[in-house]
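User: Show me a protein chain along with its predicted structure.
Assistant: Here is one chain, sequence first, then structure tokens.
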Amino acid sequence: MIGSIFVFLLVLSVLVLVHELGHFLVARKAGIWVEEFGFGIPPRIFGKKIGETIYSINLLPFGGFVKLYGESGGKTLKLPKKAFINKSKKVRFVIIIAGVVMNFILGILAFATVYSISGIPQESQNVKVIDIVAGSPAHEAGILTGDIVRSVEGEKVSSVEQFITIVEKNKGKRILLNVDRVVAEKVGANEIYITPRVEHSENEGPLGVVITSVEIYFPPIWQRPFIGIYYGFGEAVFWGKTVVDGLAKTFVMLFRGQVPRDLAGPVGIFAITSHAASVGTLALINFVGILSVNLAILNILPFPALDGGRLAFLFLEKAIGRKVLPRIEAAVHTVGMIILLSLLLAITAQDIQRLIANGGINGFIDSILK
């Protein structure tokens, strides 16, 4: 349990610090005085001033912040050239967006690491059996994991979709499969007669096999980082679209008065992080990538206290031709933070309830993935 908590806090720290580092570096580059770089939500537990910046650890370890000089305005700024509010809209936009960009980059690098180590999945023309359900027609006919299906009833197959279509057409009929076997005693070409089931459970199919046409390719070591980044970018985009789709469905459900069951708060993230860590390092790194992309998307939402909310005020400033009163913007962000914390507490309560109801971490994870 202690190890799981440590891993969870480590993952959370990496996500938050990378995000805030984006704001910090760009603000420093723009000549803005960074008053405080904080991990967690105040009140402050510990703080140390290095140079002109205080680096702090705060009570609630869910989030972080960078406090910029002149961010909330004020009529008597002693160092106007180092004040955030006095910088151009372009500079402020880049500073605000920097955290989101850093989280997206972290996601890409996490996925790239996984691809570089575990290999690059590529489509092939080999329809390969990767799992067999016990007691299924495939099991009884002698099909083995690793078999490559070359043809069904004399028709050559080169894709999963084609294989499924042919089998579906022949439910209840005895058909001939030609397979290449690379394991066990009958290595080479084999003929297997099998009868696809007419009635079967939804997750098993007529034959009771899991198949794929994807093969793992290992490029030369010097190429892997570059190819990994290419595929990592694609993976990050995929998860970004998935998060956006999920948010859209969540808002629709909330509008209808329904509570989304697949939302996970700190307790849920802790459970999934613990599970990923138990699977292995690569699974944990992959999950960090998913979380980082999630954080990037959520932070860009135009809601007060989030980066997207700050961008909204920047666009409003451009639209009306003058700055919004700093005290008004600060008040709106404070209200937004209260709403976010209240929502966080509500989701946490739901997480705990589901964790108990489902008998622990594994059942909880299953309830989310259903």
